[in-house]
Amino acid sequence: MTQQPVKAADLFVRCLEEEGVEYVFGIPGEENLDLLEALRQSPIKLVVTRHEQAAAFMAATYGRLTGKAGVALATLGPGAMNLVTGVAYAQLGGMPLVVITGQKPIKRNKQGRFQIIDVVQTMRPLTLRAERIQSADKVASLIRQAFKLAESERPGAVHLELPEDIAREETRVRPLRKIPYHRPAPDCAVIEQAAQMITEARHPLLMIAGGGNRNRISQSLDELIRKTGMPFFSTQMGKGVVDERHANYLGTAAITEGDYLHCGIERADLIISVGHDVNEKPPAIMGHGHAGQLIHFNFYPAEVDDVYFPTLEVIGDVSDGVRMLTQRLEPSPHWDFEYFRRMCKETHRMVEEKSDSDAFPILPQRFVHDLREAMPEDGILALDNGIYKIWVARNYRAYSSNTVLLDNTLASMGAGLPSAMAAKIAHPERKVAAICGDGGFMMNSQELETAVRLGLDLVIVILRDDAYGMIKWKQEDMGLADYGLDFGNPDFPAYARCYGAQGYRVGAAAEFAPLLRQCLQRPGVHLIDLPVDYSENRKVLTEELRQKVCLV
What does the pLDDT read at residue 286? Predict the structure, then answer.
C-alpha cells in the first residue's frame, strides 16, 4: 500500500523519536512553528529556556551524560547565533549534540534579507557537519546521518537548518532505522608491542583523559590498575573515570605544568595515555627535554602537537584495548613505583593544607573539603569556568565518572547552571550542585526561572569575589597593575527569591557545610552566596609552586 504523505516537520519529529530523543532544549521562533506543532503531538518534551546559549549548553551536557545526542532548537538569525558558544562547547569537548535552526522560505521569500545570515556557513567550522535541508524527501537521511556523526567517536556537534517552506512540504519518505554498530578492537600485534614496552619500562605511569569517560573503559582501567599496581593520574576531563580514593591515584593535572603532580610526570619513562584529546588543555607530558615514551590508546589516531607525540598508537575500541593489554601484563620486576608512592603521599599532604581553616571569606581549600564532605558519592558537580575549577580539579576527589562536569576545552563561562540543570534532568535521582563564580553565574542567571518552572531539585553555589578572579590571578602573576576586572553584584539571595528559588548568604566558614547538606536534602532550587578569599591563588598556585622542589 502506498504510504500517505506527511509534512516534513512531522517526519522530522518522527525521525527524532526513532533516534531515541527525549528532550529538545531551546527557544522556538516564527520559522519553527510547524516543527513546534509536530513536537506538541510527540512524546518528546520541549524544554523552553530563556536564552539559546543555555539551551545548547544543556543539550550538550545531556549528550555528555547519556551518550545520546542532545538536541537544541533555535530560530534563524539572532537565535541561531546565540547557539554558537554552546555548539563550540560541544564540539571541542567531544559532546554529542544536534542543533536545529529555522530559516525563511528558500523558494519564495517575501521579506528580502530581513534576519537572514548564512547560518550553515557560520556553523561549518564549528561542527562535524552543517547542512540545509532543501527537500522534504531528504529529512530522514539527513537526520540519521546527523545523529550518526554526533554520536560517533569522537562525538561532537552537527547542525541542520530547516527552512519554513520545506517544513510544510509533503513527502512519502519514512524514518530510517537506527542501526547499532560495533567499533573494531585494536590489532593484537600492537597490543603485544605495548605490553612489551610497559613491561620493560622502569617507571611507567597511566594518564586517564576525557576520552576514557565511558563505563566499559572505566571498568577495564580499574582492572588494569588492580592487577598491575600501576600509578595513575587524570586530566581534568578524566576525573573520576577511576575512583580517586584509590591508593595509586597521584592527582589531577589541574594546571599545565609546574604542580607537584608534574614531578611524577617528569620521572616517568613511559606514559600510557588513555583517551587523550589535544583539544583539552594538556599537562605538559612531553617536550621540555622529556625523553620518555608515550603509548596512545584511543578510538582514533593521535593529533600530534608540541607536547604530545606518541611512540606507539593503539587504535580501536579503548575498553577492548585496555582489557587485551591487562590480559598480557603481569607485575614486572623492572618496575619501580617507590618515587610515585612518596610523591603521592607528599602531594596529598600539600593539597589538604588549610582544608580546616576557619578564615572568612572562605578559603578555596576549605570550600572544596566541605563540598566533598557534603556531596554524596554519586552526587554531580557542574562547574562553570573560573579559578575555582583549578581548586576543585586539584583538591576534590571524584569517586566515579561524570560526577565532576567541567570543561577544559572551550572553557566557556556561563555553562555551570545550564549544565547542572541538564544533569538533573538526565539523573533526577541524584543530587546535583552547580558551582559558579559570580561572573559566570550572571552570564546565564536567567535560567533560574527555567529551573524553577521545571521543578528541579538543584543547589547553586556562587563563589563571590566581585571580580573576574581567574584573570586577576593571571594579571597579578604577570606583575601587572590591578585594572579592569572588578564589578558589582546584585543581592544574590534576593535575586534567587525573585525567581521563586530559595536564597542564602553564608557569614562564616563553619556555616557552609551544614547549609549545603540542608539544601541538598530539600526540594526546589537553592542558591548559596559564599564569599571567597582568593589570595590563596597567589600564595599556593604561584609562590608555593615556584619554590616547589621535587622529591629525590
Answer: 64
